[in-house]
């Protein structure tokens, strides 16, 4: 059970709710906080002009609205416009979890009944039909508009119809003023990439064992000369996983191993920053206008998700650099000068291809990953008759980060297949973890091997202290 309180939701909570690993409840104080914001919004809207409640939106911000409920309903219908395929249930649940928590932070002015409706949606897995295309990083308007229409009973959900929320559309409108879908995607990307980043160290340790690597690259002194937390984590993890040798085989290894603390450590630090941004944004009442009791009303640009766009861009870029080292290690494992084995770890007849194709698959996945690293935060756009002249495109960056996890996983799976094969050819005793990776060495289609290795990666993310993997 995860209690949503508007204060403490983190990336792991979002992922657990998204993947159905936990149920949700709304803290009483959180609902009361949202109710106070709602009452404040009603009061202050009677005293002064408030954007979106007594006016139109965008370029219509100066137009006074006579029938607020009718106008709000029309806005919800129009803003539900989208295109593309439906999003996966996991991504929609992540969005709902984030939006529920943001509303619980108490600054939107939305009716508290809407929070109850979101809890029911999550608990019943009754999901709105959210499509892929429509957000530009200044609010996930189509995704959240269709969510509110579903809560109001206008749009069917994925399961049995929900009892409509009993509130006027004008009090539901504030719900669409959020980047909850992009934040949810970023949280899921973080969960996948953070697990893979830990698996990558274990896989690299297997490669290290297969090529008799030089442990000096991970010595305590390296933590002093590379003074970053991620680099230190890599050094400590590798020291825990690899054997120390008295006389190294080489004075220094290729960069695929030697520069792991500096490159993979930067990836770990980028993930840490992404997690921090996701958590801050998921717990912030950043709606425009801000309607916090005791603080009046403030019209502002908190909907602009530049922090998120830059964090996901940096994370994907760091993933590429880490994957490049993994690709280099795959190539290292195919070279007899490093392994003492046949070229491409071939077995049987001379000229066997062995794992040659794994190198190609890894290169293909790396190529896709590099394409995803094109920064989204450098984009901009001018919309709504020129009054909205910038956008973060964080929604695109978060989606790219989700896809990047798949490509990064494939590169690591190729290294894992190759490293385990090399160790077996050398007669090494492997942990029982690797029993599901076939011991067949003859030339054949390795597609199933790569898939099995990808499934094994989560188990390699958190190797218990003292476990010797090879």
**Total separate domains:** 2
Provide the gyration radius in Å: 26 Å
Share of helix, binned = 40-55%
Strand order of the largest sheet: 1-2
Mean pLDDT: 93
Total number of strands? 4
CATH topology (level 3) name of the largest domain: Fumarase C, Chain A, domain 2
Note the overall shape. elongated
Distance between the termini: 38 Å
β-strand amount? under 5%
EC number: 4.3.1.3
Keywords: Lyase
Organism: Streptomyces umbrinus
GO molecular function, one term: histidine ammonia-lyase activity
Topology:
Blueprint: E1 2-4, H1 11-18, E2 24-26, H2 28-45, H3 68-79, E3 83-86, H4 89-104, H5 113-124, E4 131-133, H6 141-151, H7 169-172, H8 180-210, H9 220-225, H10 229-241, H11 255-258, H12 260-282, H13 306-333, H14 336-339, H15 356-372, H16 394-425, H17 447-456
Keywords: Lyase
Protein name: Histidine ammonia-lyase
EC number: 4.3.1.3
């Amino acid at each position: 059970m995860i209690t949503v309180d508007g204060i403490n939701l983190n990336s792991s909570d979002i992922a657990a709710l998204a993947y159905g690993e936990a149920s949700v409840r709304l803290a009483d104080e959180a609902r009361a906080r949202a109710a106070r914001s709602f009452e404040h919004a009603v009061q202050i809207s009677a005293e002064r002009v408030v954007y979106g409640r007594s006016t139109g939106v965008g370029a219509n911000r100066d137009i006074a609205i006579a029938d607020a409920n009718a106008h709000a309903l029309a806005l919800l219908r129009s803003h539900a416009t989208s295109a593309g395929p439906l999003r996966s249930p996991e991504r929609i649940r992540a969005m709902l979890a984030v939006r529920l928590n943001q509303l619980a932070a108490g600054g939107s002015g939305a009716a508290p009944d809407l929070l109850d409706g979101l809890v029911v949606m999550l608990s019943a897995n009754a999901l709105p039909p959210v499509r892929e295309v429509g957000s530009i990083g200044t609010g996930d308007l189509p995704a959240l508009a269709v969510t509110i229409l579903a809560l109001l009973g206008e749009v069917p959900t994925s399961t049995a119809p929900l009892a409509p929320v009993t509130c006027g559309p004008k009090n539901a409108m504030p719900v669409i003023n959020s980047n909850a879908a992009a934040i949810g995607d970023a949280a899921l990307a973080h969960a996948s990439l953070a697990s893979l980043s830990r698996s990558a160290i274990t896989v690299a340790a297997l490669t290290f064992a297969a090529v008799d690597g030089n442990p000096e690259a991970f010595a305590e002194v390296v933590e002093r000369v590379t003074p970053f937390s991620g680099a230190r984590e890599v050094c400590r993890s590798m020291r825990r996983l690899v054997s120390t040798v008295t006389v190294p085989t080489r004075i220094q290894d290729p960069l695929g191993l030697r520069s792991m603390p500096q490159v993979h450590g930067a990836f770990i630090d980028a993930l840490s920053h992404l997690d921090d941004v996701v958590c801050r944004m998921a717990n912030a009442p950043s709606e425009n206008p801000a309607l916090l009791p005791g603080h009046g009303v403030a019209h502002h640009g908190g909907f602009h998700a530049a922090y998120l766009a830059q964090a996901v861009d940096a994370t994907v870029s760091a993933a590429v650099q880490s994957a490049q080292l993994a690709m280099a290690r795959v190539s290292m494992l195919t070279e007899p000068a490093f392994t003492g084995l046949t070229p491409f770890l071939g077995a049987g007849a001379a000229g066997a291809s062995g794992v040659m194709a794994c190198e190609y698959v890894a290169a293909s996945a790396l190529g896709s990953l590099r394409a995803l690293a094109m920064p989204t935060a450098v984009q901009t756009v001018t919309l709504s008759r020129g009054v909205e002249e910038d956008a973060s495109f964080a929604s695109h960056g978060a989606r790219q980060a989700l896809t990047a996890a798949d490509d990064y996983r494939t590169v690591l799976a190729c290294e894992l297949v190759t490293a385990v094969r090399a160790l077996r050819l050398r007669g090494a005793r492997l942990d029982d973890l690797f029993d599901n990776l076939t011991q067949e060495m003859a030339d054949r289609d390795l597609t199933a091997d790569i898939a099995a290795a990808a499934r094994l990666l989560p188990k390699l993310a958190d190797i218990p202290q003292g476990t010797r993997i090879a």
